[in-house]
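Continuing from the previous page of notes. For each protein in this section, the sequence appears first, followed by its structure tokens. Read the first protein now.
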Amino acid sequence: MALNQEQKELQKELKMRADAFVRLCEELPKDIVAAWFKLVGYIREYCYMDEEWDGRELTFCSEGKSFFKMVLTPDAVLASFLSIMDKNEESKIMELRSTESVDEIIAMIKAKQFPERVLPSDDVRISPGGGRCDLCLHNYITLKKQNRLIEMVLGFAKYFGDDNGDGTYYECMGNHDNCLIHDIGSGTPGLTADEVTHIAFPYWWIKSSRNKDNALKIKPYLTNIANGNGIAPDTLKLPDCEILPAKIKVIMINEVVPKNPNDWFYSVAPDPENRRNALGLFEGAGVPVKSMRDILDLGIYITAALKTPKESSTADPEVIKAQLPLLEAELALFPNLKIIMLMGDVAAKMVNMIAKEASPSEPRTKKNACPTGAAGRRRHWAKEEFYWGDIRVFPSYIMTGKNLLIEPFKRDTIMEDIRRMMEVIK
């Protein structure tokens, strides 16, 4: 969805303020900046207060009272309590020069009972980056349980132009042990409590995940999606690889995982059949690759539509329906996706099921991404182009199995599709 003028102005203002703060931080020692981020991040996550910022001093306040002041200097973060001091306790300035020095003041903040954000029950989880799962826009289940889903999603839509509205877009990037969210204190200072919810948290989310330069481990990510949809992860064969989602331009979706787990693309076995087939197809297309890592580094991610082997020659409709959220979660990972290659009819069917629900640029179109079966492939080879929103869709053949040896024309066709795909993403 295109941003309207109000959203563009809000983004512009936020970016200007954030850039100014980044320039300030670049001039200061890293340990001091890290201490600032840790303390601001803690207060933003656990205390519901507004902020006042003059470019040097940051004051946290609520209902006309100033509670806490921080000053960013080249020598230390200067922190002091204000109106919540005990009558017999003198206000003193504490000097923070490292993240370790922040722990003591956090303990004091807990003891002095700052105005708290509404905390969930005892099962709230904290990621290694310090993120509270119940405030993360990816954690749909927890947000729903805390009754803050609509508030967060609508705030995101207002400031960042995503009109999903019902929360189904946001999925956890992985279990909390593998969470990539970091530095909630690195957003723009001087925000109201509502702006922290509607701007700081989404801004932090965008920087840390969807547009991130951080690597994402696919297997933990999909394991979490499986758990959230009532699928036992140990029954699935998931891609065990690490990617940079923003770098992926192509997703190649094969039909199904092999019955022998050692034949899988990402198997640790010395020469798995799926991987051998894939590398041979790329080599035949004139794309020199020696490993799955080489393919990923080209911005190409390979997966299977079904994460369990077929029990018969045809895919079980109930299995397709049950595993659809896994493929949908994979497709949602890539903000810069240009091409979806459908390697077989099951892949085409499942992507069409997803596309009919919502297109990347035209939600709720109820349209297929491309024609299915032989008709779709014929039209594709006749140079007819199919698009799902802005994403080009290539219907092709299954890229694994004995059929590539029995019917060599399929192998030749896939190699030609890879050549055409490479032309598009260059």
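Done with the first. The second protein uses the same format. Note its length before scrolling.
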Amino acid sequence: MRESTRADVLLRLKSIEGHIKGIQKMVEDDRYCVDILKQTAAVKGAIDRLDQAILANHLDTCVTTAIRSDDPAERERVIAELLDLFQGQASGKWGRAARTEHASCH
């Protein structure tokens, strides 16, 4: 992951963590359910934006490198990985593609 993306992602995660703690406090304080639901919706939006930032980084780095590779198996692997990811999100489950460390993916 690019250093600038990593810094952005970490800031977003800390913000989400703080928001979650705020929601926990709302539940402890027996706050109005609709107010809590509004906050959980805000967290979902923040997680969606986090996912978008991570995906953009992945497409700009790891996927681009793999697609430009002379290795057809590597190209097929990243395409299958993305398809699996999006199929998993569509069904409410995360993808099940084999996850391995790749030197080009950082």
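What the second structure shows: The helical segments are 3-28, 33-68, 72-90. The longest helix spans residues 33-68. We return to this in next week's lecture.
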